[in-house]
Design a protein that fits this description.
The chain is of the alpha+beta class and 710 residues long. Helices cover 49% and strands 8% of the residues. A five-stranded mixed β-sheet has the order 1-3-2-4-5, sandwiched between helices.
Length: 710
């Protein structure tokens, strides 16, 4: 076979697409050229959607797409199109829904067969080259699809039309509009409680995914009520996750999910958005419970993100780290045989590491039974008792062993980090880092978050009022494509700008939040029936992109409509502009009649309803003295989803630091201009008298939060 690429993917900017440029298949990128070729040659489209971090995508690439016989069949009978799901979530979401509707399953790689105009008529996920694992062989599938399209093209067109029409109806939420139920938050929490695994934490059975939005909603309710059942959910889940193999015990950071109910064996890819949202969970759990373990985990997540997902030179957060370093690998970078551990550690360190991480002759990995997934099974105190040593000594040995194992791991071939910078995911990471800075006093995290947001705003926000989805690709020499921003990009960036404003009192961040939110309403809001579309109408309506979607389900990030509603309600609290609240309320009312069907997957909707139904508590702390620091600490300490704390470091609060709603009131209150540290609490658009005693502020804040709970 020639070493020259047989397709044009070498010109792509996406790391996933570029990884296939050597394959013998004549891959095309998503675009008009591919669809024109399918129409011209009257061939069905083979659509592969995957990601650079996806293990089974690599397996299918190696087994099928690098197979010369299968490549010949594909090139002869199909127009082959490859899509990076991170670069084009709009394409992925529609074809995922189609394949799930047809087969009952989805995921990556997504393998879909389309008519020349892009309508799906058959699909699946991973297909092995020959029959195995209860799945049909890809060769047989390809030949059968090709024959069916040639001989029964009319039937296939009809079937494809039915699929597309069904998708359109499913996404319309027609007839679901209703008033937002006052008990909706409790209803969603009750659905989570029914799924709670008391033994291992988390919700449901294997495979087990984190549910960060649901956890935040539960944390909010626990902070308000002190309900012991909710504390059990929080502590059991977050402790088991952090001590399991789904958490990288050496490097820090969470893998995407666990294949078992005990959180031991993960899928090893690490995503920026999983870690940003779980970072918030652990910060909020520390606030709500005072448990220092949760603060330590939060700091460790930041450590990993600093080291692996951060562009330290320019600012910005990278997208992900791959699960594998080669097609033959399955988490080998992260797992250990007993012999590998023995080679890295001395005798005493090995003894302690074996007991703590459960490193045995037989491990948990099916492809290599000697490989162990490190997970914390015994504490330093338990190990010390078993080995007859002091707990302090066991702790020191464990710390030394961890450092040596990590150093040894760094010498292994390393899974790829996708250095693409996405606007929406950066918004999530910026918000998480600013939260870490507030709660744990991590000034370096604050500075990096602001530098990252500045990069997004300078490189992704355009003069015509549009936001780009991709802020920057890795340096490849390829022509960089511009992908239009989607609803998530706008909503998450608005939230990050509001968080940055609260962290700095720099009104330019607030003004950016308003401009981006106004553009989001103008471009995505369905003014007729309410809610937000995921893409701007008229932006490249190829294939299934012509269908309208209003994302409502968390999967796994906050749903776009919920995030948009939260952003608008936060803006309304600062501006008193009724248009923001009206758009948010219309959005939440659109889904109110169907929210009960989604249960835990509507948790972000519940968070938006907290802002709608419980209002907002705002604390403005002014001053640069020790008293101001104490007031700020008192304001930050308790957790509530709908609390905002603004630090204005001037000794006096001036109107130019404040958005319209606060500027009308706060600077004119008696005692605000006396030059000392002072705090003003505003609740439900009413500001209380200034407070300069931290204990008094804590009491007033507690009363305000309890009043909202009543």
């Amino acid at each position: 076979m020639s070493n020259q690429p047989s397709n044009t993917l070498g010109q792509a900017s996406s790391a996933y697409l570029r990884s296939a440029m050597h394959q013998p298949i004549r891959w095309r990128q998503w675009g008009e050229e591919a669809f024109a070729a399918a129409r011209r040659e009257n061939k069905p489209i083979l659509l592969d959607i995957g990601a650079v971090w996806c293990h089974w995508c690599h397996v299918m690439d190696r087994e099928s797409y690098e197979n010369p016989e299968l490549a010949q069949i594909i090139n002869q009978h199909f127009i082959a199109v490859k899509v990076d799901r991170d670069e084009r979530p709009d394409v992925d979401s529609r074809y995922q829904a189609a394949v799930q509707a047809m087969t009952g399953q989805g995921g990556w790689p997504l393998t879909a067969f389309l008519t020349p105009d892009g309508k799906p008529f058959y699909g699946g996920t991973y297909f092995p080259p020959d029959e195995r694992l209860g799945r049909p062989g890809f060769k047989r599938v390809l030949l059968a699809i090709s024959e069916a399209y040639r001989t029964r093209g009319g039937e296939i067109e009809q079937q494809a039309d039915m699929v597309v029409n069904a998708l359109g109806e499913a996404e319309s939420f027609a007839g679901g509009r209703a008033a937002v139920p006052p008990d909706v938050v409790q209803t969603i929490i009750d659905s989570a409680l029914k799924l709670f695994d008391r033994d291992h934490g988390g919700f449901g059975a294997a495979p087990k995914f984190p549910h960060p939005a649901a956890m935040d909603l539960i944390l909010h309710q626990y902070a308000r009520t002190g309900d012991a059942r909710l504390r059990e959910v929080i502590v059991t889940t977050l402790e088991h996750m952090a001590r399991g193999g789904v958490y990288d015990q050496l490097g820090g950071g969470f893998h995407r999910y666990s294949v078992d109910e005990r959180w031991v064996v993960p899928h090893f890819e690490k995503m920026s958005y999983d870690n940003s949202e779980l970072l918030k969970n652990y910060l909020h759990a520390y606030q709500a419970t005072g448990n220092g373990f949760f603060a330590a985990v939060a700091k460790d997540i930041v450590r990993w993100m600093d080291a692996w997902l951060s562009d330290r030179a320019q600012g910005g957060f990278y997208a992900s780290q791959d699960a594998d370093y080669s097609p033959d690998d399955d988490g080998d970078y992260f797992t250990w045989t007993l012999e590998e551990a023995r080679a890295a550690l001395n005798h005493d360190e090995l003894q302690v590491a074996q007991l703590h991480y459960q490193i045995d002759e037989a491990g948990e990995m099916h492809h290599n039974p000697a490989k162990n997934v490190l997970h914390a099974r015994a504490s330093a105190q338990e190990i010390a008792a078993r080995l007859g040593m002091a707990a302090e000594g066991a702790g020191e040995l464990l710390q030394s062993a961890r450092a040596k194992l990590y150093a040894a791991r760094l010498q292994r071939p390393t899974p790829l980090v996708d250095k693409t910078v996405y606007a929406g995911w950066n918004g999530l990471c910026v918000s998480a880092y600013l939260e870490a800075a507030r709660v744990l006093g991590l000034d370096a995290a604050r500075q990096f978050a602001l530098r990252s947001l500045d990069r997004v705003l300078s490189q992704a926000w355009r003069e015509d009022g549009r936001l780009k989805h991709v802020v920057a690709y890795p340096e490849t020499g390829a022509t960089q494509v511009e992908v239009p921003g989607m609803l998530d990009d706008y909503a998450f960036t608005v939230l990050a700008c509001l968080d940055a404003y609260e962290a700095t009192a720099d009104l330019s961040y607030f003004q950016f939040a308003r401009r981006i939110a106004d553009s989001m309403i103008r471009r995505f809001c369905d003014q007729g029936s309410g809610g937000f579309l995921d893409t701007e109408p008229g932006q490249g309506a190829l294939g299934a992109l012509s269908s309208r979607r209003k994302p409502f389900q968390d999967s796994p990030t906050l749903a776009g409509n919920s995030a948009a509603a939260i952003a608008l309600l936060r803006l309304h609290a600062y501006t008193h502009h009724p248009g923001y609240r009206d758009a948010a309320q219309a959005t939440l009312e659109l889904f109110a009649g169907t929210v009960g069907q989604y249960g835990i997957f509507a948790a972000s909707y519940g968070i938006a309803c907290v802002w709608l139904l419980q209002g907002c508590t705002q604390v403005v702390v002014a001053g640069n003295d020790q008293r101001a620091d104490q007031l700020y600490a008192a304001a930050v300490a308790p957790f509530a989803l709908n609390k905002a704390v603004l630090r204005a470091r001037d000794s006096q609060v001036a109107a130019q630091y404040l958005p319209p709603g606060l500027a009308e009131t706060v600077p004119n209150l008696p005692g605000v201009r006396d030059g000392r540290g002072v705090a003003v609490l505003c609740s439900n658009f009413t500001c209380h008298p200034p407070v300069n005693d931290p204990d008094q502020l804590a009491a007033v804040l507690r009363d305000a939060m309890l009043a909202k709970a009543a």
